[in-house]
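notes to self, project folder thing:

trying the whole complex as one job this time. last attempt i did each chain seperately and stitching them together was a nightmare. two parts in total, labels are on each line so i dont mix them up again. if this works i'll redo the older ones the same way
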Amino acid sequence: MNPLKKFIYELQEITFLIFYAFSGLFSKPRYLSESVKQMDLIGVGSLPIIILTGFFTGGVLTLQSYPTLEYYGGQSQTGQLVAFTLIRELGPVLSALMVSGRIGSAISAELGSMVVSQQIDAMRALGTDPYKKLVAPRIIALILMLPLLTVAADVFGILGGGVVANNLFGLDYNVFLTSVRNGITVEDIIGGVIKPLAFGLIIGSISCYKGLSTTGGTVGVGRSTTNAVVLSSIVVIIIDFFLSRGLQHILDAQTIS
Amino acid sequence: MPKSQKNIGFSQLRVGIFVLFGLAVLGFLILNSTGDFNPFAERLKLRARFTSADGLREGAEVQLAGVNIGKVTQIRLLPPDNPEDAKIEAILSVDTTLDGKAITQRIRTDSTAQLIATSVLANDKMINITPGTPEGSAVSTNHVLDSSAAISINQLTQTGNDLLQQINKLAVPTNEILNKANQGDGTLGQFINNDDVYKNLDATLGEAKLSMVKVQTLIDKVKAGEGTAGKLLNDPELYNSINKSVATLEKISKDLQSGKGTAGKFLTDEALYNDAQATIKDVRESMKDIKPAIKRLNQISSDFETITKELNEGKGTAGKFLKDEKLYEEARTALTKLNTLTTKVDTVLNDAQSGKGTFGKLLTDETLYNNLNQTMSNVNQLSSESTKLIYDFRQNPRKYLTIKFKLF
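result (full assembly):
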C-alpha cells in the first residue's frame, strides 16, 4: 500500500472511529462510570505534570523576556507578556503535548495489548461494542479534561512567571498581576479554552485508532504506542496553527499577528 | 475495521478522501478569510519610485489612506542611466476591489505613494497611497504613481538638532543680556532694577494730578465767576461799561460835530480861527522889532566866547577854578573827610537809635521822659497847691500868721 493510500486510509478509519464513538452516545448502554474513571485517570492523574510544566514554562518565559523588556523600559509589562503567551498559545499546546505523551501512550498501549490478546474480539463476541465501551469514554474524558488542565497550566504558569519576576528581577507581585489583568481579554481566554477541546479530540481519536489497529504482537504494541504519541503531537501542533489563525480572526483579537 | 489492508482500492477510501478534501478546504478557508492567502483574487500591479528604499522590504504593507489594501511584491534598483532622481522602484500588488467598488475609483492618477514609517522606533517602512480626486483618471496596470517620501524620524531628529543648535546660539547672548540686566547694568538693567524711574514717574503723576486738581478748581472758579477771568467771562458789567463808554464817545463826537462845548466850538466856530489869524499878524510885527535885539545878542555871545577862551587858558580866578588841579584835590579830601564824618555821624545815630549811650538812651529810653513827665505833673500839682495856699493865705492871713506863745 502506497503512503498516500495509507494516509487516506488512516484518515478514513479515524473518521469512522470518531463517528462510531459519538453515535454510540445516543443509544444505551452508556458507560458513564467508565467515563468518570477515565476522567480521574486522565485529568487528576495528569495534574502534577501539567502544574510543573506550566509553572516552569511561565518562569522561563519571564526569565527570557524580562531582560529584553527592560532594555525597552517595559519591564512592568512582563506579566502581560507571560500571561498573553501562556493563555493563547503555550498553555493549550504544552498541556496537549504532555497529555499526548502521558495519556496517548497509555491509551494506545492499553488498547493495543487488548487487541493483541484478542480481548476486543472477546468483547465483540459478548455483544459489547468496543467503541462504546473503550473509545467513547476516553475521548469524552480527554475533551472535558484537557481544557481544565490547560487552565491549571495557565494559572500555574502565571504564578511561576510572577515568582521568577519577583525573586530574580525584583518586580513586585502587584505590578506583575496588574499588568496580567491589563493584558488579558475575554477573547484570549475563550480562544485558550476552545483549542484544548480540539486537541482532546485529536489525541483521543489518534491514540484509540493506533491502539485498535495494532498488529504484530507485543512488538506491534510498542510501535503503535510510539506512532500514537508522535502522530498526535504533530497533528496537535499543525492544527494549532490553523486554529490560532482562525480564532484570531473570529475573535477579532489580532494583537499579535 | 477491514480485515485486510493489502488490496484496497480508492473506491474503498471515499470517506478518507472526502475528509481529507474537507480538511483542506477548511484550512484554505481559514487562511483565505483572514486575508493571508488568496490565490484567486485579481491583483492590480502598480509602481512607485523612490530615491531610497530606506527600510522598505518586500512584503511590506500597502495602504490606501491607512487601510491595508495589498503588499509590496518586489523592490528593484532602477538602471544606473535612469534620468530621474528615483533610484529604486517598488512594485505594489493591491486589491482590485474595496468594499464592492473598483479600487481605481479611489486610486487615481493624481494619487501619490508615500513612504512612511510603521512605528516611531523602528525604521521599517510601508507605502501609503493617498486617495485620488475625481480630476484624475483611473490608474491602469503598471501605472507609476507619483511618490513622496514622508518625513522620517531620522530627518525629524536632524531638523530638531539644527533647531536646538540655533536656539543654543541665541541663548548665549540672551543670557548675557539678562545677566547684565539682572545686575542692573545698562538702561534695561536700570529700568528693571532701579525704582527711581518708577518713583519719578509716580511723583510726576502725583504732581500732574495736583495740577489737574488746581486747573479744575481754577476752571470751577472761572465758571463760578470768581476773579478777574471769571468776571471777564461771566460778569456783563464790563461789557455794559464798555457799551456805555462807547455810547458816551458817540455822544461826544455828536456834540463835537454839532459844535457844542469848547472842543466843539474849537472845531466848528470860526471866531477862534479869526482871532488866531490876528494874533499871528501881531507876532509877525513884533518879529520885526526882535531883529536888532538878536544882533545885540550876537555881540554878547562873541563876548562870552572870549571869556571862555580866557577861562580855558586858566586866566583869572574862574580860570584857576576850572584848570588848577590843586583845588580839585582839596575839594576831594574835604569831601572824603565829610564822608567819614557822615559815616561817624551815621554810626552815632545808629547807636543812638539802638539805644546805646546817653544820647541813645535819651532818644529811645522812655524812663527819662516818664520821669520828666512825672516831675512836670508834680510841679503842676505843686504850683496849683501853692496857688491854693497863696489864695488861702490871702483870705485868711491869720491862719498862717498866728503866733502862739505858750509858756508852760
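what i see at first glance: Chain B touches chain A through 19 residues (CB under 8 Å).
need to look closer tmrw
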